[in-house]
Amino acid sequence: MPFNADRKVIIKTIQTMNQHLPSKRKTLAELLEEEKPGIRGKDNTFYIMDKAELELISQNVPRYYWKRIRLPLLIEMSPDLGSGSARVQGEVESELVSKLLGLKKGYDKFIVIYLPDVRELRRKLPTTSQYAFVTSLREEY
């Protein structure tokens, strides 16, 4: 049973690390219409998104995707992906990341990127991307 206690501590730690994440993400179309574009995190902090970043995103995503792409982009850091790897989920989101980073895009609903790409993505989109910490906790018998 010690695994259950450890598991609860890990889950609580990850929840605490993710308090900055929004409870609801917004579409690019919604954010472009707002005077002060941004989202409210689970910690009730309002995170403003830079209009120049929203413009950069809109220039790299066809207009018909503006109602599908959800922001902020969540860069999922997970030990399950291996050291130095991260994932961005969503078909349109991964297409945007591929284009911004000059990577070859497959037909997946997510893209795995590596630390140099993560740094580059955060440099280009500091207010419209956020880190999310995730893990799968499986019991091994």
Concise description?
The chain has 141 residues and is an alpha+beta fold. 38% of the residues lie in helices and 21% in strands.
Which residue ranges are poorly predicted, with pLDDT under 50 across at least 5 consecutive positions?
A: none
Measured between the Cα atoms of the first and last residue, the distance is 12 Å
SSE string: HEHEEHEEEHEHE
Shape descriptor reads: globular
- Mean pLDDT equals 89
Secondary-structure-based class equals alpha+beta
Overall description:
- The chain has one domain.
- The chain has five helices and eight strands, in the order H-E-H-E-E-H-E-E-E-H-E-H-E.
- The longest helix has 16 residues, at 2-17.
- The strands form three sheets. Strands 7-6-5-8 form a four-stranded mixed beta sheet.
- The protein is an alpha+beta fold and 141 residues long.
- The model has no long low-confidence stretch (mean pLDDT 89).
- The protein has helices at 2-17, 28-33, 51-60, 91-101, 115-124; strands spanning 26-27, 38-40, 46-48, 70-71, 73-77, 85-89, 110-114, 129-133.
- The two termini are 12 Å apart.
- The chain is globular, with a radius of gyration of 16 Å.
Walk me through the topology:
Layout: H1 2-17, E1 26-27, H2 28-33, E2 38-40, E3 46-48, H3 51-60, E4 70-71, E5 73-77, E6 85-89, H4 91-101, E7 110-114, H5 115-124, E8 129-133
Parallel strand pairs: 5-8
Antiparallel strand pairs: 1-4, 2-3, 5-6, 6-7
